[in-house]
Amino acid sequence: MKAVIAPIFVFALSICLASSCMADEKGVQSPPATHQAATLNHGPRWTRNPSNLIINPSHFSLPTGELGFNTSDPCVLYSEKTKSWHAFFSSNSDKLDKQFLMHATSKEATNGWRVLPLPALDAGAANSWDARTVETCSIVEIEVGPTQSNYYLFYSGANTMDGDDADVYSMGLAFSTDLQSFHRIDARNSPKKADGLLFDPVEAFPKTPGVTSGVVTDPSVMYQDGSFKMWFFCAAKNESGEFIDGGICYASSADGLNWQHQGALPTLMNDKAPGVIAQQPTVIYNPQSRLYEMWAVIDDPAYASYGIEGLAVGGYFHATSADGLQWTYTDKTAYDFTWDSTIPSENKGMGNGPTVVYAKGIYYLFYSSFSDQRIPTVDYPPFTWGLNLAIKN
């Protein structure tokens, strides 16, 4: 449940939980006029699914018995093996003061979603690197036979949930052969000799001297031409706690365990405002155009008072690349997909980065929103934080 990083010169990571970042209903207004009019500037427009919210967190229970609050940071897969859609999203428990990854399935992307009763991946063991939260996932399916696939669930995790610069997020991996039970890679297979752990912020910046801590999170992973490719948000700090590098990083791996890091990609810096960096990427490859496509969040302080402070966004920017490394923005000043406050399913705000799935010539964009629709009447905040879908051909 990552917050948007503010100016590049001031490193601030805020993680807002249900207990500490409730938006006051009276403080939710219409969006800033300068962005309200922003529209899609390339290709067909996105069409929102008329059945949004497709997953309403107020109508499923966590293993603790609490009603769901957030369905944030989704990662989504359509599996030919199961003939179903699978959505994984982070949801936090006030009772446990932890966050885990839930799993929902549907035969149709547009409706019929069912949240499974147990988490796909729980927070890690006590005192482990991911003991308090697992979140911001990416799911990859690799076929190993006519009836068998292996599933790689990449995620970020931390052993604090302070919501400030003290948080250090690292990257992890869990594995499944049936999409039902996921198991962390064990310490013997981990490059860091810790269950689940792949790499930490220091490793993400091989060419940046002086990195001592930071954040690696929001992975978007694909398996292509025999190797894994990962784009993810990265932020590096030096010994004095100063932000010294960051943005969207890239790494590749032959086995999903050992990664070769390129560091932050300079072409993904966005200059619509001084000192603002891109984050929360989702990447697909379009075989028709032979281009990689990315949607990313770029912080806009104008939305700080909407939805949940630090997590509300005005929309998603779009970029393309021939090699996955050198990127060109479609438009640096207008969103490809824009929050619409007049739509009931997102009338209290839009939050976090999306995930995009490209299947059979159709783009499926799954995104989180804040809404005052279908809220329980007892012991619940004035909005829900649900999952939505938009489609374009």
From TrEMBL:
Signal peptide: 1-23
Keyword match Signal: yes
Keyword terms of this UniProt record: Signal
Coiled-coil region list: none
SUPFAM superfamilies assigned to the protein according to its UniProt record, in alphabetical order: Arabinanase/levansucrase/invertase (SSF75005)
Annotated InterPro entries: Glyco_hydro_beta-prop_sf
TM segment ranges: none
UniProt-listed PANTHER family: ARABINANASE_LEVANSUCRASE_INVERTASE (PTHR35279:SF1), PTHR35279
Protein name in UniProt: Glycosyl hydrolase family 32 N-terminal domain-containing protein
Organism: Rhizobium herbae
